[in-house]
């Protein structure tokens, strides 16, 4: 049986998760119970933006801005987004870092059919964890994310966090030339190395902005790396900054130190003491300035104290004593590209000897690992290459335990930046049934093989 788009629109796919057998195809198609109401109507559409002064860039935007509209909800509550596609091509939305049911995960042909031009899709899920998350398509990712379809999703704590001020900084480099025209989002020789970098930096869609913040106050900065390929060496020299959360999960507050490597898809939340009126502090990527924070007069408020740690999220604690160990090797295998002259995607990367083919919808039927529901696992992540890979898992968060390259204070995340030749151990409880994508978040690595599916049954 083949599932038609009309059947889905007519609601024949039914409620919740439905496994529809099509031969041995396993596509899950779902439809939220309540399509009558939603919290946001989010439109994806073309939008000309001025990244280079005096020139227009034909971006694609969510909610009329690129990066997209900041969506917010409260921990434990439902977020309902009616997503309307006014692009000229099919797309989906994936909610990066949110532990949600598979049919809301935005993976085409697995979670849902792609949303065609002119169609809409109602996303409806509970946000179990407070923190800084984000959303983006999971279709034609190099171009769709590259053109600006990336946006922050902020889940607020149930109770006040102790921060009275906050600001989101969405970091993205744009693949544009000096006239603002798009350049290639992925070129093979770069995809086979560190990924194809954009050349123009931006924070919240503006190159090198100055952000006014209340002088003398402690501000929660949510810094999100929404870039396709770049790892930012984040530095805030000359200011007191403490890390409060990493990738959507609280940590015991600690000084930022000299720098923090924020890979694609990763987020960091800092408490930052904003200096006196008129003083400026740079936000830098290594030696390069991304933005300037400037102290401006605020109300006659007294200086705030450093807030306590943020409350932990309700993530199941893996029991290492009974965890089963699984090994995942990430390696370069550029010599195996076949059929590229005939239009096939390049294949430069593999996980455990298998390359994902973005043109082959049946890849999801061959999960690289099958986990037993509610069992405990340690993943050993081995990078056998000279390039770093931000390794991301959908559907579940995992705890980073140790690395052969650095000292780790264990913490929960959805994306771990695996350095060159690094081996790291992470652990999780497989408590979310489904088929979950497991991939490098350097988009052109992911699109040239570095992706797999992990099944939880
Ligand atoms: Cu941001 Cu498949 O993920
Ligand atoms: Cu994700
Ligand atoms: Cu990678």
UniProtKB/TrEMBL annotation:
InterPro entries in UniProt = Cu-oxidase-like_N, Cu-oxidase_C, Cu-oxidase_fam, Cu_oxidase_Cu_BS, Cupredoxin
Q: Which domain of life is it from?
A: Bacteria
Give all residue intervals belonging to the Plastocyanin-like domain.
55-158, 358-456
Which PROSITE patterns does the protein's record reference? MULTICOPPER_OXIDASE2 (PS00080)
Q: Which UniProt keywords apply?
A: Metal-binding, Oxidoreductase
Matching Pfam families, A to Z? Cu-oxidase_2 (PF07731), Cu-oxidase_3 (PF07732)
Task: Tell me which PANTHER family the record gives.
Answer: MULTI-COPPER OXIDASE, MULTICOPPER OXIDASE LPR1
What is the protein name given in its UniProt record? Multicopper oxidase family protein
